[in-house]
## 1
Amino acid sequence: MPQVELNQVRDLNVVDDQWNSLYKVGSAAAWIAVLIFRRWLGEEFLLLRAIGIIRVGPRTIPTSVADWFTLLQTNPLVGLTLLNFFDMVNYVLVGLIFLGLYAALRTANKSYMTLAAALGFVGVAVYLASNQAFSMFSLSNQYASATSEAQRSTLLAAGQALLAMQDPNVLGPCTMGFLLVTLAGLVVSAVMLRSGIFGKTTAYAGILANAFGLGYPIGVAVAPKTVVIPIVATCLSVSACFLVIWYIGIARRLFQLRSNPSQGAFVKSR
């Protein structure tokens, strides 16, 4: 075989190895996102606490900054969970999933997949930058060691400002991060449906998961606060069910593609 052809084969093998790595990472991230670091673990904790499966921790979200500080000092794991700290892990995993999906669907519709990747990565970055769990935990430590009433008042005011940034009932930075990631998921699912690379069940599950997910930021934007909570609970509950199916479908297909990366590279949309 001529040297030029040998070099071309080596280049193709390098590219295949690169896509193969993304398939592996995306598949692993999807499994972890389903089994361990699911989104909205705080709400899941409160549900399990309400029905008695979990027997420690508060039954409702703390209503004051002082209550948050007390919870973070007495049970930091529960406090961080309710402040959606573990959602940050989920968003990082979602970013890795988008990498795997881009590798698999890049030739099905490169323009839409580039748009989806951009929306997804910006959404992940916005959410990570706006989550205040670590900052609240740091303030709680300072509050516990404060020696004067003036110091405590200052720390309480700072805590209130942080909670306002992360209020799920307003269209703030955290909600915007969620919106961007959900829009990205909707675009990816539409590409999936036409690609022939993923099954239709996976594609439709993604469309439904992200369509219902959009009900959350839309509800926050247009509905009065008195009806936001039931809207959010309904949309996110339905979305979560389809999201599990979507992630499992993604994880399985990316795991299959890892051994034959060319399947994802050459299947064209119809």
## 2
Amino acid sequence: MTHLATTPEGTAPHRVVIVGCGFGGLFAARALRRAPVQVTVIDRTNHHLFQPLLYQLATGILSSGEIAPPIRDVLRKQRNTRVLLGDVVRIDADRRSLAVRTLGSRWELGYDSLIVAAGAAQSYFGHDEFAAAAPGMKTLDDALEIRARIFGAFELAEREPDPAQRSRLMTFVVIGGGPTGVEMAGQIAELSRRALRHNFRSIDPGDARVVLIDGGDRLLASFPESLQRRTAQDLKRLGVEIHLGVRVTDVDADGVHTSSADPALARIPAAVKVWAAGVQASPLGRSLAEATGAAVDRAGRIQVRDDCTVPGHPEIFVVGDLMALDQLPGVAEVAMQSGMHAARTITRRLRGKAHKPFRYRDLGSMATISRFRAVATFGPLRLSGFPGWLAWLLVHLAFLTGFKNRIATIASWTIAFIGHGRPERAITAHQALRSGTAPTEGARRS
């Protein structure tokens, strides 16, 4: 039985539909838990993904369950909330309804207020063909495929007699020098030089080559210069090659081509490539723009009013990575705060209270480089090394969803950071096939 909130007059409750259950959608739903509304959360997956820790899933530190709890479980105590699995394919702003697709079937869902928190996808800057050889880091599937590629490359190198092919298998190229790229490069380097020691007999994993490429002239461009320098120093100590001012011009199964005039960099043979160079708004953004006449920016984000609503449609809110407002960055904090603001605005309206604009509070930025090394900024405060890593650890634990997940994550971090292991290294046959690291039929029979 579905429990619906009722108004004091006993009339039908105000229907709030939230599209997407990332940070923006989840925090909006939670903020409505005591409101006199009926909330429907609809998402194309059944889990809330803690995206900032995807790179730890990809490098064997955490399991998928620790960073992706079921949405139904997270919201199980909210009596006014139901969760539906589906992919919103069209928004009819005039009829206030959504066209939803689920496993081949199509159906409609009406709303009184709509919160669109569909997030963002990886951007290949017009070269979507790169995705097959260089997956991004936006979904569980992405991270699990990258994990299969990383650990599969070491497995293939162990039985590869040709030195050139072995070198290609043990070369890892990370494209993009933002937080995701820095964290990914640092963890691959630490994995190869520390966690995989003594695991192989024919190769030394510490010989792996980790290359970080960015078209700009600085790593972590949004961070203070002192932390940028510290990040570069820490990565180099781990053995990461850093090449700035270099653009990737082509990516294929065997390596990458770059804009460098240096022949050694113009073509880098590499089995594993990870794309962390940019994001673009969910395609639902352009669908919403067509339905409402709203403007979009170059990344496909909706230009919203100061209260996160679509111009001309005060009943439609756009939050998180899908909204364009005051040049706010596409980070989790913006999504959380804008999601809560949209929910509170709906509640205020139902109480007849006045409009309030959205005001973002910048709580800082951080990026981890390896165990005991991170950089963080909180207003004028700058942290690096172990203090930065400790701050990173505490903040991420605080935002993980669910007590059980926090306990499990602490256990996994203890194994990975205090010990030498990576507890999550399993590769399924399906992942191996997708990543191209599956053995041949003859090898499987032998």
## 3
Amino acid sequence: MTLSWGIAGTGRIARDVGGIIARHPRMRVAAVASRDLGRAEGLAAELGGGRGYASYRELVEDPEVQAVYVATPHSEHAAVVEPALRAGRAVLCEKPMTDDLAETERLVALAAETGAFLMEGVWMRFNPLVRQLKDVVADGGLGEIRSLHACFGFPAAYDAAGRLWDPALGGGALLDLGVYAVDLARLLLGAPSSLLARGSYAPTGADAEAGLLLSWPSGAHATLEVSLLARLPGTATVVGSAGWAEIGPSFHAPMQLVVQRAGEDAQAFTIEDRQAGFTGELEEVEHCLAAGFAESTVMPWAETVGTMRLLHQARARLAEQVPA
């Protein structure tokens, strides 16, 4: 059976994921939507000849569309996700689900109400090396975890009206990059008991960089750094009482994992496909639909809401630094 996708958006990530769908033996792109009909039709033709639409509502109401991949700016996610769920379409929504905690909770509640499948597209969780690291930690291969450090950043050209810098478009380092760092900490250590945050702001009011310190009752802690001003190494290091592991670069789409256990030689694991996480999340949607699941066990709704709650708290802590 072929899973027919509709793609909302025509940017780089829509093209990347759409290309994987088009090449997948059990999937196809049935339609693409954009506010610019020409762009929608152009990408649809590039991805196999599906239809192009000038509105997202037309996309979700297309009877051939079984699943919708939402690749619009995150400030516009809800405007696509909500009608898609109400139309009974499965939804894979790019991270973060929205730029607001209450809105994320509302969409999750709507998915539960309608019974339609909904998953946040955190491709990091579906990368084979990240899944391997999770298993190493869960199996006690590093002993008791004591610390985690993750950083992700690049110098983004300042554009007050651009997606990364305009708060109205969900701009800022925390929502765009911090979602990965916070989600990795939750994936490996669970929900923290406390959070501290410091950073700086762009003239638009968007957070330009941030440093977070998360703590757990065990005494374990995570230091997370994100920046739109500087290129950071992009690695993540997990330290336990019996060893350590490093993944990256970049940790959100890694191609190498190094595991060093006490008294043993370091082990290095690699993959060749940087986009393996995209393939993994698409196949997770396929698997869940075949099994009749409304949510993924790899990226369940509680994880989406939990990460957004921490990002919401971190943004509030940063805002406390700004003079009234």
## 4
Amino acid sequence: MRGRTLPCLFAALVAAAGCGAGPSGDDGPTRCPWRAERETIGDTLIVRTVSGSERGTGRLVEELRIGAVEGDDHENFGRIAALGVTPDGDILVYDEQAVALRRFDADGAYLGTIGREGSGPGEYRYVAGIAVLPDGRIAVHDFGNVRINLYEATGDFAGSWPARTTLAAVRPLPVDREGRLYLLDSRAVQGSEQGTGTREMILVRLGADGSPGDTLVVPYGDHRTPGLEVQTETASIGVLLPFAPARSWTVTAAGEVVATTGKRYAVDVHRADGTVLRIERAVRPVPVTPEERAAEEDRVTRSFRRHVPGWRWDGPAIPSTKPPVSWVHASRDGALWVRIAQPGAPIPEGERDRSARSFVREPVVFDLFRPDGRFIGQVSAPGGLQLQPFPVFDEDRAWAVVTDVAGVPYVARYRVEWDDPVS
């Protein structure tokens, strides 16, 4: 195990007058060249952003929207559960309600539906993720039929691979640049007593030919997000504690597993050689507002009282501050998009749902990093952008589900427009 080295600055120091405070209150990404510290502890290299960034702050600007309230069937989305984008820019949209994988070109024109509902060749029953392979083929995780369906770039069925996993959480089907797929599963922790329910999250890696490969542990350590639980006559029902640090993971194009627990601003990139790159950034705590706390307490109470009338809060208290990071996802070209905590903001009058518990919401803001830990900048998302299903990202593009004030889902393509890029 390598020894600990003293922090060293590897970006040029700049005059303090040239820097400005970022949106999180830290010496952030605006008007300041990137400055960082580098530190090695054992097998972990820490790249800690102190101030500034490569490109400053920016925002996602919508340039295409697909969908309609009234129109043809293929334009009326029900529950969009997965997105994909081909090398040519075609957009794949899996509608869970219609059980249909629809394809649109880069201009939004409908090209047809890939496969159909069923259990025969090329059909699917419950899709738990889609991916576009480096050669352009489309992979569909058909959890209902316990397989991976493959389709040519044309949409023609190209065979299937077995995919035996126990988890059916709808999320991206990670693929690396070598064409290997990663299936999420769980297994009992070695050494735990039988029946304790102690399990760890794992990724089963399939080779480019579908052959079973090695198994990777999603590296959360011993972190468990606290929650609340109610016992009914037939089942135990639980929810995660609002604003508690929660786990998030992704897989990069290089096949590296990335994980964060949200307890502090630290995103760990686990490399193939066994070393870890830890990305850190100095940020100030973001408080949970009284309106946010009351809304979440009301949500949990209403949910539990549907099962146990008269239920009262009997678990851990909602934290006073938000986790600094809550979500991480790798782009197709290697960048990491990290959602960061933001102060709750009032919902504009014209966007308010009168049945809502609160007129306060947290804006969606991302920090972008290069695979080596360099801070690219901070990007704000427009209202209505959804993180479920997971968007598809490049460093300068994003494809995501967006909902209007009535909750109607659409698919949108965005470009990153930098407001004040650092030269």
